[in-house]
Amino acid sequence: MEILESVRINLLSPAVLFFALGIFAALVKSDLKFPEPLYIGLTIYLLVAIGFKGGVAFAEAGVAKVWLPATAAMVLGALIPLWTYPVLRHIGRLPAVDAGAIAAHYGSVSAVTFIAAINYLDAIGQPYERYASAFLAVMESPAILVGIVLAKLSARQNGAPVGPALRTALRESLSGRSVLLLVGALAIGFLAGPAGMEKVGPFFVTPFQGVLALFLLEMGTVAGRRLKDLRRVGPFLLGFGVLVPLVNGALGVWLGQHTGLGIGGATLLGVLAASASYIAAPAAIRVALPEANPTLYLTAALAITFPFNLTLGIPFCLALARHLFSQT
After folding, report:
1. How far apart are alpha carbons 254 and 243 in whole angstroms?
2. Residue 313 belongs to a domain with what CATH number?
3. Is 322 exposed, middle or buried (0-12, 13-18, 19+ CB in 10 A)?
4. Which domain range does residue 53 map to?
5. pLDDT over 80 at 71, yes or no
């Protein structure tokens, strides 16, 4: 009953309801569409706000308290493609380039899923470590590089060089908008500290929920337009997009518990591990692996895993965290 109540609270949150409205708009073929500059502006605001707030919390907690779970999060993000890639290759029988591209997306993270998880924890009054956005910043890039290396190593067997594509991927993933803003804002928040938050708090805190609702409305329309692609990706990728987040989420929760996080922090690490990137990873993959099929990796990440996590995955991670902590 507690799990069902958690799911109900999550499904009735404004963020999820606006996402559902966007899907409905796409299904009825509404002309609702955000201008590209507005979409980019909303993305920039959300990334900067979450990075800055995380940096301030990082400064308050101290490096000694954060380094272990942050390092564990980065390692987890890099390892996820190492087990998802063979599943995609040998069970899904996907080409190496597509398996590497999808593995990179699932090892990387979704900032909006993370924000939705924070909103959910706030709504139910579950405390969590405010510096958890540091995990988001360090998990964004490593998996992208690992996924690209896996795909290129397979290509190398056919004589294709790995180095140029890897250097391009490294440059794209580190200088891309998502990583640059997250890491940069995190550093600024860390240096500015609580005194800096007092100066910009009215801008980064008060309007945050409204901006997130607008962003998820747009994401709903994008996901809704990709629902038709589900027929083409097949039952394997549909199952992959649901089961893999459960496995990765469980790994993240377990790792959070064993690196000193509380129930809320372990839940957030689990949500990050369960999520799939649809902002940073597609940008890097498009450059480094142009032959990869975007229908596969975008549909899996955006039309399958993102809605699943937004509705059921987040409550699952919290329920698992509470269960694990109750056993200790």
Report:
1. 17
2. 1.20.1530.20
3. middle
4. 2-25+33-326
5. yes
